[in-house]
Specification:
CATH superfamily of chain A: Formate dehydrogenase/DMSO reductase domain
Number of strands of chain B: 36
Order of helices and strands of chain A: HHHHHHHHHHHHHHH
Radius of gyration of chain A: 23 Å
Radius of gyration of chain B: 28 Å
Shape of chain B: globular
Helix content of chain B: 25-40%
Mean pLDDT of chain A: 88
Mean pLDDT of chain B: 86
Number of domains of chain A: 1
Low-confidence stretches of chain B: 876-880
Strand order of the largest sheet of chain B: 17-21-18-20-19-24
CATH topology of chain A: Formate dehydrogenase/DMSO reductase fold
Oligomer: heterodimer
Number of strands of chain A: 0
Helix content of chain A: over 70%
Shape of chain A: globular
CATH architecture of chain A: Up-down Bundle
Distance between the termini of chain B: 62 Å
Largest sheet of chain A: none
Structural class of chain B: alpha/beta
Number of helices of chain A: 15
Number of helices of chain B: 28
Largest interface: A-B, 52 and 59 residues
């Protein structure tokens, strides 16, 4: 890496912002079409009722909450990479920190839509806010959903600020190279950054502070999300392992998503020199670690269910593995805890093809993990008479397609309009490494 | 009016003047030019019909009821010399044996018998009487039997004769005239144990149990076959049953001959068949049809439709629905509804109940009585309107001499318990000459084909219920299938025929065939398929048309020439899979309880033992009964302090030993609480809205143990739904009710997810009450919009009413003053509602019963619905 000069970094990154070709805009237009389609499905659902989806009694929650948890999970590793690894000074995170943090912001935005989509009467959603009113009605602070509201909105705020703070010096670089309207825009965005000593001093302090602030959020937000389930009393949900298990799962899925995004990105923009194989390999190693935690959690859950000798609890786990949704369960086990073990072998973690394929598999597996958790417990609850099934409908798939389109739409816009690699941090990295030499 | 094959609207005045003209003209043509077929109606109406017909020189109306029990009537005539349908004193019997009589579904007077049945069968005073049910297939009545003995179809007579032989040998009754005894012995002598077991193919152990119980019983009562069975074997069975009752108790003290069911007014199927034969041969000019649907309920071989279609016959159908029969008529005459008119009906002979208008007429449709008074004014002299005629007739017939007595009767809805005037001819007693019924022994249909059993439906009756959305929406109590009538098949039969559960199968019998989805169940004998009656309409209304299949279409006249024309049976049938799937609209996820503490039973022996002191624990089966009261607070288990309740803590006690699973509570709840009807497709999608549902549990491989559990909001003191709602839409009120505030609900559905009882129902859509069904809506209860959660409120509107009344009178609400709709409707008093804070209330007493428990109580939800275990004879583990 020491071969990279500062100028090379600037040129490479700024090169990603060159005016895009027709292909790019076609893809963006297609993605926008997907977003519009998802939005249309949602509007239809608002007019017709939640029955447009596949939810029923007993499975009252469906893909909307699966996608919610999925996207919140995706968000997490962004913060892990940009904040936690920043605090522990893991140098390999610098080339991907910006993209990962961006992923966090967009994933939280996407996730944040789902609770709204899920609501039966979304137009009444403001009841959840502690707005003073003449009836002195407050939200129920005992409810995990209020925890969620607080946690997710805090997370979104902090992530956006953290992301924007990190962007400032880079925005200034772009501003300096841009002309015309673009220059004006970036001038406004870069908030008058001149690179003076005080600027850098405040910037590094601020960035460190945000990193410190974001770090507990990685743990807390997904713990809170897990409490949506763990504080309920349904069998298969009401367990203490849920918080760490969800956090690990979130990071697992997020890291996989980072690989899924970075591998095409470095190829398309020719940033292989910056996002080196070493970086990808480090991500893969972390995935091995989170994958092991996942495998351990799955085992523990099943073991505790058996150890409790509670027939209801045992039945749910038997049902997960061998019941109507057995396929999803085994997809989850294989993709999340077995496939990542391949990264133990250097061969798999240093070949782009394998890295990409496995990252996709983990993404799928993590989606199914949420499916298994959210669907199987209520469908196989306490009273056997009320057991039921669940099958997503066209509208739900449409909205899901919309959510993926939205995420990639935003991300595509981002990579062409904002620096997707932190020039500042790359320079720091290069500087540090050259200093060590 | 139909003209040249087209329907044309005409006013009532024109219709009446046309009818007047037509009938005058017909009457001028000679005798019997005007005929009438009617359902069983009140005396006043029947009298009016008869009078009108007489004025047209015609004979009186023929009364047709598909489920008329006319074979029972014939058997009563043959054996007891009693031409009618007496009532049965079930409550004084100590053993009940049924040969298919569906007295909880359609037989004579099901609600009355449900009550009488439970007064003998419910656990009381340390004991409980038994009920055996012998039939090939088990409906709701069979599901309530302590022991269901499956016999081959048509062999009920053999079993019954076997029992007669047994009783004649083991416990010969006193005072049987010797010729009678001799002829009984001649009939039954051949039916020894082995022969009965071989013929009927019944389980020898169960048969022995039945014999033993019958020998020991002091006051047994035996009931015949189902109301809709109409074969020769069925008549024989009724006669055999009557003989058995006689042999068991020559005084026939459990049969009340003075209290007669009005269904006896119906003409026999022989007569109906004759009537249609005559119609076809020499058609009269005018045919009136009132409240009957013969084109649906009579077998196709009788040619009803062809007759009604004839051009030279002017058919007038009094009907508010374009059903199969009305669709063939020349004039369809809509009438006012019972809710709009004055009527009277005496269902049994010692009472008469009045029907009074409860609403202003919606349309200007007249009452049928008024129509007849206008077209045949000379028929009746004592009044100008049907109401006047009715009042004057009733005053003559019943002891209502002065106005005061009349007003009192109107207020109470009728005259009850008046001494009956209908005394049997010369007292009930055995009549010789029943022997010849057994001469034409029906060859036991031992063919390779399957036998078809037509099951009565508690919901659809003879098909009249098929257009009522509430009745369709409530699932069948035993199969738990709503909106559809599946073909019930034993898993073994299905395996042999290579058909799968939920597959559409074609059922062929003779030239007719029908298709229905297959429902595998162990409540039917292998080799028999069963289909519920009531569906398969090709006309009628939007809820009935084109739904299900009509098993009546497979009925064939019995080939046996010696029988009258009124015998029908289904020949051997065959089923084959079509390969198509049809999802069943069933509401149960699993039939079994999986060893959980849900619908519990206790053996009678265990109840009699002194209570063992079990150490309460925290696991499912050791968790103590925890009442939703401050005394239920346990600092070691509870995080939050108990709720304070103001004066009342509403609760319900559900006695599983009394619940017969009839699901009337469900229908009542739909009506009271404006619960949405979702229809077949949404039922398949699992979106039924019922606030109370009946869970039916049955162990696979051990079909004897069947138990019903009414499940409704438990109004927990420690409600899982309350704590998870972000906006406090579920809210615990000062009287312990778990209120759902619809306006506050935003539809997160977290409460439903977290409810262990799954009694919270979400409004997936905006449910529809298309005109005029919107008139069903109860104005005291909010209609919920899409996107909000709802559930049982313990009929909070009635609680509020009671509060108002109590406040006006400056007192507390009395125990029993509030009856939620389900409690009010329950025919067997299985549900009791009251306040647990009142120590003398019935619920407070009942929760100290040894049988009391809470469903899934170990979750520490502290439900306010306390269940009393069902009492059984055997341990379910033994029978497995």
């Amino acid at each position: 890496m020491s071969r990279l000069s500062f100028a090379e970094i600037d040129n490479t990154v700024a090169g990603t912002l060159e005016p895009a070709g027709r292909l790019y805009w076609t893809v963006v237009a297609l993605l926008f079409g997907g977003v519009a389609f998802g939005a249309a499905c949602w509007v239809y659902q608002i007019f017709v009722g939640i029955g447009a989806g596949g939810q029923n009694n007993p499975v009252n929650w469906g893909t909307y909450l699966i996608n919610f948890v999925f996207w919140v999970g995706i968000a997490h590793s962004g913060t892990l990479i940009s904040a936690i690894l920043h605090l522990v000074r893991a140098g390999w995170r610098n080339p991907i920190a910006r993209a990962a943090e961006t992923m966090t912001v967009f994933a939280v935005c996407t996730a944040g839509l789902f609770p709204f989509i899920h609501l039966g009467r979304v137009w009444m959603v403001y009841y959840m806010l502690p707005v003073p009113n003449q009836r002195t009605l407050w939200p129920n602070f005992q409810s995990p959903l209020i925890f969620d509201l607080v946690a997710i909105s805090t997370y979104l705020t902090v992530s956006v600020l953290f992301w924007y703070t990190g962007l400032l010096p880079d925005l200034a670089v772009i501003r300096d190279r841009a002309s015309g309207v673009r220059k004006k825009v970036f001038r406004a965005l870069s908030l008058g950054w001149t690179g003076r000593y005080e600027h850098w001093r405040h910037y590094t302090r601020g960035y460190l502070l945000f990193a410190a602030l974001a770090t507990p959020l990685v743990i807390s937000v997904h713990s809170v999300v897990s409490w949506d389930f763990a504080l309920g009393i349904m069998p298969g949900w009401h367990t203490t392992i849920f918080a760490p298990y969800f956090v690990a799962g979130a990071i697992h899925s997020g890291l996989a998503m980072v690989l899924t995004l970075m591998i095409p990105l470095r190829k398309i923009f020719g940033t292989e020199k910056i996002i080196t194989m070493h970086v990808l390999e480090s991500v893969a190693k972390t995935i091995v670690f989170t994958g092991l935690i996942m495998g351990f959690s799955y085992g523990t859950e099943a073991f505790i269910a058996w150890y409790s000798q509670n027939s209801v609890e045992m039945a749910v786990f038997t049902y997960r593995a061998f019941g109507d949704f057995a396929l999803s369960y085994w997809v989850m086990i294989v993709c999340n805890s077995l496939v990542p073990l391949l990264f133990f072998l250097k061969r798999f973690r240093t070949r782009i093809g394998w890295l990409f394929a496995i990252s996709i598999l983990i993404n799928i597996g993590m989606w199914y993990e949420r499916f298994v958790i959210i669907i199987s417990s209520p469908s196989h609850g306490f009273l056997p008479h009320n057991w039921g099934h669940y099958m997503p409908t066209f509208i739900e798939y449409g909205i899901m397609l919309g959510s993926f389109s939205l995420f990639f739409f935003l991300f595509f816009l981002f990579v062409k309009h904002l620096p997707s690699i932190s020039m500042t941090e790359m320079k720091e990295l290069v500087h540090q490494e050259s200093a060590h030499e | 009016l139909r003209e040249n094959g087209q329907w044309k609207n005409i006013g009532y005045a024109e219709a009446v003047s046309r009818l007047t003209g037509t009938t005058r003209h017909a009457a001028a043509g000679g005798k019997d030019r005007v005929r009438m077929l009617t359902a069983v109606e009140g005396d006043v109406l029947l009298h009016l019909f008869a009078g009108s017909l007489v004025s047209w020189w015609s004979s009186g109306p023929v009364i047709y009821e598909p489920l008329s029990c006319d074979h029972l009537k014939e058997a009563n005539q043959a054996v007891y010399g009693f031409d009618g349908l007496p009532s049965y004193r079930m409550e004084s019997a100590d053993l009940l044996v049924g040969f298919g009589a569906d007295f909880l579904e359609t037989w004579l007077s099901p609600v009355e018998y449900a009550r009488r049945f439970k007064s003998m069968h419910a656990y009381a005073g340390g004991g409980k009487n038994r009920f055996f049910h012998v039939s090939p297939c088990r409906g709701l009545t069979g599901a309530n039997a302590d022991i269901w003995i499956s016999c081959a179809p048509g062999t009920e007579t053999a079993v019954c004769l076997g029992l007669i032989r047994e009783m004649m040998r083991q416990k010969p009754p006193d005072g049987i005239p010797s010729p009678v005894a001799a002829s009984i012995n001649r009939i039954a002598g051949a039916f020894d144990r082995q022969r009965v077991i071989d013929t009927a193919g019944i389980d020898p152990d169960l048969y022995d149990q039945l014999r033993r119980s019958l020998r020991r019983a002091k006051s047994p009562l035996v009931l015949g076959t189902a109301a809709l069975s109409r074969s020769r074997a069925d008549l024989q069975a009724h006669i055999a049953v009557n003989l058995l009752n006689y042999v068991l108790d020559p005084a026939l003290s459990n049969i009340d001959f003075t209290r007669r069911h009005r269904m006896e007014k119906a003409d026999s199927h022989d007569r109906i068949a004759d009537f249609f034969m005559h119609l076809a041969e020499e058609p009269p000019d005018v045919l009136f049809l009132n409240n009957v649907n013969p084109a649906y309920a009579l077998p196709p071989g009788m040619g009803v439709s062809e007759t009604l279609r004839r051009d030279d016959l002017f058919v007038v159908c009094f009907s508010n629905f374009m059903d199969e029969t009305a669709a063939l008529a020349d004039m369809v005459f809509p009438l006012s509804l019972p809710l709009e008119s004055w009527e009277e009906y005496s269902g049994v002979s010692d009472l008469v109940s009045f029907c009074q208008p409860a609403m202003k007429p919606l349309y200007n449709a007249p009452q049928i009585g008024d129509v007849f008074l206008r077209i045949a004014p000379e028929a009746v002299q004592n009044g100008n309107t049907a109401k006047q005629v009715m009042i004057s007739r009733i005053k003559d017939r019943w002891p209502l001499s002065d106005t005061r007595a009349w007003l009192a009767a109107v207020r109470s809805g009728g005259v009850f318990g008046a001494a009956s005037q209908a005394v049997p001819n010369d007292g009930p007693g055995i009549r010789p000459g029943f022997e010849h019924y057994f001469e034409a022994r029906t060859a036991s249909d031992r063919t390779d084909g399957l036998a078809l059993a037509i099951l009565p439906s508690i919901r659809l009756y003879d098909g009249r219920g098929a257009n009522q959305p509430w009745l369709c929406e409530v699932p069948d109590p035993v199969t738990k299938v709503a909106w559809q009538s599946p073909l019930m098949v034993h898993p073994e039969t299905a395996r042999q025929r290579g058909i799968r559960n939920g597959e559409l199968a074609r059922l062929t019998g003779g030239v007719q065939s029908l298709t229905a989805p297959v429902y595998e169940t162990e409540n039917i004998r292998p080799g028999v398929v069963a289909l519920q009656a009531g569906q398969g309409h090709h006309a009628y209304g939007r809820y009935a048309r084109g739904r299900g299949a009509n098993p009546f279409s497979l009925l064939m006249p019995e080939s046996d020439a010696s029988g009258g024309p009124g015998f029908y049976k289904t020949g051997p049938v065959e089923i084959e899979g079509t390969g198509q799937k049809q999802k069943l609209a069933h509401t149960d996820g699993s039939m079994e309880q999986h060893g959980r503490k849900i619908a519990m039973a206790v053996t009678i022996d265990d109840l009699e033992k002194p209570p063992a002191h079990e150490k309460p624990g925290l696991a499912m089966h050791e968790f103590p009964l925890t009442l939703p009261l401050p005394e239920g607070y346990n600092a070691r288990r509870d995080f939050y302090t108990p709720h304070d309740h103001d004066a009342y803590r509403w609760a319900m006690v559900v006695d599983l030993d009394r619940c017969i699973g009839c699901s009337a509570c469900m229908a009542a709840c739909y009506a009271e609480n404006n619960v949405g009807v979702v229809g077949e497709q949404q039922m398949i999608n699992g979106r039924e809205m019922s606030w109370i549902h009946i869970e039916r549990y049955q162990q696979i491989g051990s079909p004897q143990d069947l138990i019903f559990l009414p499940m409704l909001c438990q109004h927990c003191d420690n409600a899982p739904c309350e704590m998870v709602c972000p906006v406090y839409a579920p809210h615990h009120n000062k009287e312990g009710l778990n209120n759902q505030i619809y306006n506050r609900c935003i539809g997160t559905r977290f409460c439903a997810q977290n409810c262990p009882y799954k009694v919270r129902k979400f409004n997936w859509f905006e449910w529809q009450w298309p005109e005029p069904l919107s008139l069903q809506l109860n104005p005291d209860v909010t209609v919920r919009t899409k996107g909000v959660m709802e559930k049982c409120s313990f009929c909070v509107q009635r609680i509020k009413d009671a509060h108002d009344a109590a406040k006006n009178e400056n007192r507390m609400i009395r125990d029993g003053e509030i009856t939620p709709a389900c409690v009010q409707t329950c025919p067997t008093d299985a549900l009791v509602f009251g306040s647990l804070m009142d120590e003398s209330s019935r619920v407070s007493q009942l929760v100290h019963d040894r049988r009391a428990y809470q469903v899934m109580g170990y979750l520490n939800t502290k439900p306010a619905v306390i269940y009393l275990r069902k009492v059984v004879y055997r341990n379910s583990a033994d029978s497995a």
